[in-house]
Amino acid sequence: MSSTRQVGAVLARGASDIPSPHIEYGQIAPLLVVLGVATLGVLVEAFVARKHRYLVQVPLAFAGLIAAFVWTIWLGFHDKPFHVAAEGALGVDQPTLFLQGTILVLAVLALLLIAERRASSFTAQASALPGSEAEQETAAAGITQTEVFPLLMFAVGGMVMFPAASDLLTMFVALEVMSLPLYLLCGLARRRRLLSQEAAVKYFLLGAFSSAFFLYGTALLYGYAGSVRLSAIGAALGRNVGSETLLLGGVALLSVGLLFKLGAVPFHMWKPDVYQGAPTPITALMASCVVVAATGGILRVYYVALENLRWDWRPALWGVAILTMIGGAVVAITQTDIKRMLAYSSIAHAGFLLTGVVATSPDGLSGTLFYLAAYGFASIGAFAVITMVRDAGGEAGHLSRWAGLGRRSPLLAGVFAFFLLAFAGIPLTSGFTGKFAVFKAAVEGGATPLVVVGVLSSAVAAFFYVRVIVVMFFSEPEADGPTVVAAPATATAVALGLAATVVLGVLPQPVLDMAGHAATQMFVR
């Protein structure tokens, strides 16, 4: 008994010597709010009756996202010095807050699409086999798949955490928290269930490979620097210590994992299949919020950890950006499915974003931040329009089905045409302002040939955008053509996306000033 008391005393003394972690809860509150609401959503699924879950989940999700956004705005105007919080795991700085605010606003718009009941894109029962009697019974009963809301909140929590991560292990955790719910959400489409499930499996398998590359690269960089902290890796590069083989191998493998989430060539093959097969609201979420989070993570890694290695990674990013812009624009010409066409358009835009990253300057950072906001709003609006154009088989995905839509519904067709013109970068749209910002920064950073390729790729991309406009307004409508579904929540998302696209094109200076102010600080170390 005495020996037991002695062991207990030793353990007590040892525990008292362990310092308690210092967590700045107020500084990371937006992340905690989103993850807390996600956890509450899981409890709602467990304890609330099925018929009441939708009425609880939707307001809860909206409240969580709006509260997190308001707190992010407060942090942005707070006079507390920006720093690395949570024992060095998360960075709280102006670029990160801009990225997090953009993600949260876009997530609210995506939630409007997901919460739509009149034209729901989600299966009534995910566990039922496609075409089975059980699936038909649940659909006829009007059952709603409410698990999508906590899954959405967990995914958004990972997105908010990803660009703020100040060490590679935290970034890997954020990557998995962001990705795992998306793998599930991609397989929940109401129509074309087999295609949706195929997309989910492809995304899961390729995502697992990319995560393995990321983790292996982290291990190699730890072997080089003796730390996974981004600032410590940057300091080790400044001292030029460690094995160059470990360094270059780690950077290459880490870049594979990061560029995969962005969908850059040659790590893009998942994107067209997943965008086409996933429920369109989830496609909108990935085309906007995931792109913002992935680009934020790339910016933090390259600008903080690998700044002293820029002469080695910049030529590689040059090549990736050129392949991405050309590959996305050229292959999009051959597409006849609207969602696949926008998927390749997203790939081309990933190349334009990398042009801003290559600039490695405050102007490049501010231009990239603005581009992310502009592209995100236009993407949400475009995919929201797609969910409203339906025929007997669900969404009218094939381009030929959109023939004459300008005569059937000139307002909706005109809105979609405006989003396409924004993607093309036509003046007086947000796309033109965003491209001008990143191209200007790239020219000032000595990447003029890259800008030339970007301009030519934009010209090629304009062809397939204009082709869709011609089909909608200058083709004869089919007798059994699609109809426009009246969906209030979706229409609200379209209106907000349109308003943001117009404002960022006509009066972009306030947001440009915000992005420029955020970029003056760069990222904390």
Automatic annotation (TrEMBL):
E.C. number(s) listed in UniProt: 7.1.1.-
Stretches that traverse the bilayer: 28-48, 60-77, 97-115, 148-165, 201-225, 245-270, 282-303, 315-334, 341-362, 368-389, 410-430, 450-474, 486-507
Entry membrane topology: Multi-pass membrane protein
The UniProt record lists the keyword NAD: yes
Superkingdom assignment: Bacteria
Record keyword Transmembrane helix present: yes
Main location: membrane
Protein name: NADH-quinone oxidoreductase subunit N
Protein source organism: Actinomadura rayongensis
